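hiii, so i know i said id send this last week but things got crazy w the move. better late than never?? heres the sequnce for the chain we talked about at the cafe, plus the structure i predicted for it. fair warning i was half asleep when i ran it
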Amino acid sequence: MVERNKTFQIVANGVMILLCAFCILPLWLLVASSITGERELIVNGYSFIPSSIDFSAYKYILVDSVQLLRGYGLSAVVTVIGTFANLTMTTLFAYPLMRKDLPGRKLISFFLFFTMLFNGGLVPSYIMWTQVFHVKNTLWALIVPNLLMGAFNVIMMRTYLTSNIPGEVIDAARIDGAGEFKILLRVVLPMSKSILSTLALLVGLGYWNDWLNGLYYINKDTLYSTQVLLNKMLLDTQFLMSSASQGLNIDASQLPSTGIKMAIAVMGILPILIVYPFLQKYLVKGITIGAVKG
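okay and structure toks below
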């Protein structure tokens, strides 16, 4: 029995090491490629250990460091405001749905689920946001469209609350004279840290990585978020490469076209890598409990 347990432990550790390698090695290859010279990438391809270190891709990105820092700051503001607003609306939607005594509960749940399957499409959405709500070229264009609230998050939150908040606790709070908002703030939310942290991470990732809203609704340089700005740099590089291939006086070998893609990816994920360790302990628990439909 002892030998069997030892064998199982060795195999399990080997599998975990292999899985960790599958997660870490692509990230390391990304970083190594971003500091590899363009000529070396063209000739030798990608390598985990670059033969020479070249920061040309980062120099290209940091030419206008002020605009990049402004983009980082704007992305941080949008992520914080958007995540807080999303969690607030999601909680206010999910909490009544967990209550079995809510009138029309099944009908509201049906309409919520319906939005996961059907939507108006891109053109009607664009017309609505720009001509009805007038969010174009405003900060709200990066916060409201597509990301402010999602049906899937509401379902996760509702399921978590239904599974982990006993009705007796809510009844006891009501007997003690607490109103609905006080029950939500003093009872429900303190018992929902896992799902709130999980949703905060997922929503924050969505806001940080979003570039479509900026592409559709923003054409002012001062409102470019990090992802929009990095995407613009990538498109500019591709344009220069295209111009070089058409015979214009541009040395394509001096443009870090491949390395800049890797550098842009590194610059985009760096803040997430810093924040993730503080929230990852809640992620598995929140998703496991909240993803079971009730």
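btw The radius of gyration is 24 Å. thought thatd interest u
miss u guys!!
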